[in-house]
Design a protein that fits this description.
globular; transcription; Arc Repressor Mutant, subunit A; Rossmann fold; six-stranded parallel beta sheet; transcription regulation; Response regulator transcription factor; alpha/beta; 11 helices
Length: 220
């Protein structure tokens, strides 16, 4: 199996050095390029084959959110994990809207960051639990009073609806599998079918869907 090719974007050289040591210590991934800001990243990534980009939010010249947005317009765009020091609403929402497949804090444990790179590379999406909570709080004030049925939700089976609810609540595949006494492979199959039926991109979009349609309500 080919290595996961990782590209680093951060305006602090020391941070890039730390990430390089971490990524290159893994047998299944390697750093293939680096950039100190979003503009440089766009230039280099267009001539550097990479699978996953670790993207800082706050950078000079071009920030991580706008760089992510522009990257998504490229043919065969890499998956982007946005990293930030602060778990601020506007960054999380903007990054997700721009097409990021992940949003994590820089103080995320190394093992969790490496796991996130693998998950995003496999097509999943990753958002830190604290960001998910804030995402849900953000939508709480604009949610419908009654459940809003969408035609594509009507196509979901009872089990798919149950899985969607738990995804929206922030549970991982492992936790959902344990809850319903299923294998993780079966949970992934259900999520794949939900994405296909709803036409959504990834797990993050399913979280938003669950709350926008009222399938899940924020806890008070």
């Amino acid at each position: 199996m080919d290595d996961i090719r990782v590209f680093l974007v951060d305006d602090q050289e020391l941070v890039r050095a730390g990430f390089t040591m971490l990524v290159d210590s893994q047998a299944d991934m390697r750093v293939v390029g680096q950039a100190g800001d979003g503009g440089e990243a766009l230039e280099k990534i267009q001539v550097t084959a990479c699978d996953v980009v670790l993207m800082d939010v706050r950078m000079p010249r071009l920030d991580g959110v706008e760089a992510t947005r522009r990257l998504q317009s490229l043919p065969e765009a890499p998956r982007v994990i946005v990293l930030t020091t602060f778990d601020l609403d506007e960054y999380a929402f903007a990054a997700i809207k721009a097409g990021a497949a992940g949003f994590l804090l820089k103080n995320t444990p190394p093992a969790d960051l490496l796991s996130a790179i693998r998950q995003v590379h496999s097509g999943d999406a990753v958002v830190s639990p604290s960001t998910t909570r804030r995402l849900l709080e953000h939508f709480a004030g604009s949610l419908p009073d009654e459940q809003t049925e969408r035609p594509d939700l009507a196509d979901l089976t009872a089990r798919e609806r149950e899985v969607l609810v738990e995804v929206a609540r922030g549970l991982s595949n492992t936790e959902i599998a344990r809850l319903f006494t299923l294998s993780e492979a079966t949970v992934k199959t259900h999520i794949g079918r939900i994405l296909a039926k709803t036409g959504l991109r990834d797990r993050v979009a399913l979280v938003v869907l669950g709350y926008e349609t009222g399938l899940v309500r924020p806890t008070k």
